[in-house]
Every structure is written in C-alpha cells, then in structure tokens.
C-alpha cells in the first residue's frame, strides 16, 4: 500500500490555512525549529514519503528511505539538476554554477575531485592536529571568566573550528585574526535577517578570503609547505591534479561548512549533556566514553538536519510518485530518531548499544571532514567539562535555534560555571 497521503490538513496550527504542514517543514518556521520531533514523528508515522507542495519537494523521514536515497547514485547532488521552483534549486542563479563545491558535484567530477582531496583528510593527518586543537581549546577556555555567564557559542564553539581551519590551511600567524574576522563576516552575512551592512561586509570578506587563499596557493606551488593548501596543490591521482579554483572552492567549503557544523556539534552536544547531567557524570567517571558520547550527540541532535538530492527522472519512492526535477529531502534528524533504527530514540544515552546515525550523510558523498569534526568536538567538549566542574545552563537565557535551513544549531548558549 502506498504511504503517499495528503498532509495539508494534518497537525496544523490553523486548519483553514492551506499547506500549513509544508510551511512547518523548514527551519525558518519557529514550530519546526523549537520542536521538530513533534512534527517529524507524526509525519513518519502517517506519511513517511510526503509531497511538500509549498517547497516543491518530496520529504523522507524513515531511516531506511533516507539511507537508500543517500546511497542512490542515480539521484543528483547538483542543485542545478532541479527545476527552478524546487527546494534545492530555488534562489540560485547561473552565476553560482561555476562555484559549486565538492558536496554538490556529481560523477565524474565528484569522483575525480574526491580522489584528490581525500588524501589530505586521512586519519593520520587529522590525528596529527590533536595537540594544536588541544592548545587552542586551552587558550580559549583561559579567556573565559568563570565568575560571569558566558556565551559558549561566541566565546568557544565559533572561534575554535575557525582557528583550527586557519592552522590547517597554513594561514600565517600574523593573518589569523584577520582570517577569523573575515570568516565571521561571511557567516553572519548569510544568516537570515542579515542587514544591508552585513551583506556588504560579507562581500568584502569574501574578497579578502579569496585573495588570501589565492596568494597561499601561488606560494605553495612555488615553495611547498606541510599544510592543507600545500597538500592540495601537491595532490595527484591517476595523473590528475587540482586546479587553483578547485583548491579555492575546497578551502572555502571547509571554512564555511566545517565551521558551522563543528560549532553546532559543540553547542548541541553541550546542551545535551547539561540537560542530562547523569550522562555528563558518566563521562567524568570514565573519559573513555567520549568517542561514544560524540556519536550519540551526532545521532541525537545533529548539526545538519537534512540533505537534498535532485531527481533526474520520474520514479516511485516506496510507491509514491516523484517527478523529474523535484528535490528529494532526506530528513537526517528524523532518520536518526526512527524507532525502527533505535529503541527509545528520543532518549540521550551515551551507552547506547547501537550508535548508527546518518548525520554525516552517506554513499559517495559521505562527509570528508567526519574524522576532523569528531576530533574537534571530543577535544573541545572534554576540555570544557573537565575545566568547569559546575557548568550549567545560565538562568534567564532561553535557547533558540538558528533559522537557517538544513542546520540545527543554537543562536546562543549562555552558561555559568559557578
């Protein structure tokens, strides 16, 4: 029996408003941001393959369907394969096409670039960063006044991955503060509700970042160095090498995507532990549980809540029609909380027997930076909770999610350590 039903009048705040359910399936709607599970659980139970008429897409909420779509290489990652009205394509112009980063490329371009880039993200290369990440975490924590409330996001979760990426890229020490300022301006300038001044700052920061990275590429080609840009300029596979624009796009992807997701993993993981103090106590008693704790954080409250593929032909998904050019949105958050995948899926349990999740995507596009994100989060969170024994959420500061589609982090996380 097909699971396709009309949900336009299911779980609506105002049944007289058409397509209210569809409007709520996006982070820009406060109901979805603040309590997504109430919506996604209902959707998974009653219509796991849902036609979202407002955003012109099909939404998947079951773990099996999400896993199948992420692994399906007959679906496209290129947003320009979608029709202009569909969710994955809307808002893009032809000017964006030449700058598509690795996660949005299809084979053979994706396979060629990934072969070259993956060499710079080996387990050995990432693990070699541990002492530098530990030093960055210690420096940032030393700057925090434990006698006053502080914003974990602004004071710790944002600067840590930015500084790690600057070190990875080989940005000179004298330029790191400017690099961080550019990075902050770029991220702020893409946020919903941005001002005209913030957009101007973003554009100027983009120019500054691009010039900085281009200079570094030229320098590494002339005089190789042991850093990420040096590794990318030297990378070779099957007689092919990366072009300068491919290196630039790879570095920018790491900067923007890596910054946002790692920041949100640190923020979301901290909130999960503080709301479940018995789990934090287990970690303090047995630090060997940290790797398992990071996996549970990724499952329970992932930084990326959904990912898109574009359908390039008419087909059925679980008996439900999907048109060529439509976006298929895999709800990673819903899949991670599918009762068919995990018992008591809404419980936060770092000792969970099965730690499977879809938070790094899947298939050929599995996140290249997964090992780095895990390492940064483990170092950052273990240092935070070891350094502040009385850490708790600060009274009088509500938690609100960012209104950014596909991302699930908090705007601020105010903490107190006394």
Outline = globular
Q: Looking at the chains present, what oligomeric state does this protein adopt? A: single chain
CATH superfamily: Cytochrome P450
- Strand share of the residues? 5-15%
Largest sheet: 4 strands, mixed
Describe the structure.
The chain is an alpha+beta fold. 47% of the residues lie in helices and 8% in strands. The protein contains 17 helices and 11 strands. The strands form 4 sheets. It has a 4-stranded mixed β-sheet with strand order 1-2-9-6. Strands 3-11-10 form a 3-stranded antiparallel β-sheet. The chain has a two-stranded antiparallel sheet with strand order 4-5. Helix 9 (159-169) packs across helix 10 (176-189). Cytochromes P450 are a group of heme-thiolate monooxygenases. They oxidize a variety of structurally unrelated compounds, including steroids, fatty acids, and xenobiotics.
Features:
single chain, 418 residues, alpha+beta, Cytochrome p450, 4-stranded mixed β-sheet, 3-stranded antiparallel β-sheet, 17 helices, 11 strands, globular, disordered N terminus, Cytochrome P-450 like protein, monooxygenase activity, Cyt_P450_B, heme
